[in-house]
Amino acid sequence: MTTVTRANLAEHIYTQVGLSRHESAELLENVLERIAATLEKGESVKLSGFGTFSVRQKGRRTGRNPKTGIEVPILPRSVMIFRPSQILKAQVNGESVIGLDDSESDH
């Protein structure tokens, strides 16, 4: 199993697009910064054929310490959610993606 890193992605941009290594790394950073800034504002990011990143608010709730069984409050927080498109799900499962277009990809 290989982990995809920023360096891997920047190198792939370099080899596929033809920008310099520096420009490729800068392009990648700009895209990632834009995605992060959009999510910070509470907006969703949809990458057609890949999936949708969104932020969901979780309310205050009561949890339990598994060791002691004592109830503890869990404060409200924001959580990040990724919902893969049908195209990505099919690719991951080795299925054919014929017949799926962008209008069907995230439903």
Automatic annotation (TrEMBL):
The keyword Protein transport does not apply. PROSITE patterns: HISTONE_LIKE. GO terms for molecular function: DNA binding; structural constituent of chromatin. One of its GO terms (biological process) is DNA recombination. Gene3D superfamilies: IHF-like DNA-binding proteins. Keywords: DNA recombination, DNA-binding, Transcription, Transcription regulation, Translation regulation. GO terms for cellular component: cytosol. Heterodimer of an alpha and a beta chain. This protein is one of the two subunits of integration host factor, a specific DNA-binding protein that functions in genetic recombination as well as in transcriptional and translational control. PANTHER family: DNA-BINDING PROTEIN HU, INTEGRATION HOST FACTOR SUBUNIT ALPHA. Belongs to the bacterial histone-like protein family. This is Integration host factor subunit alpha. The gene is ihfA.
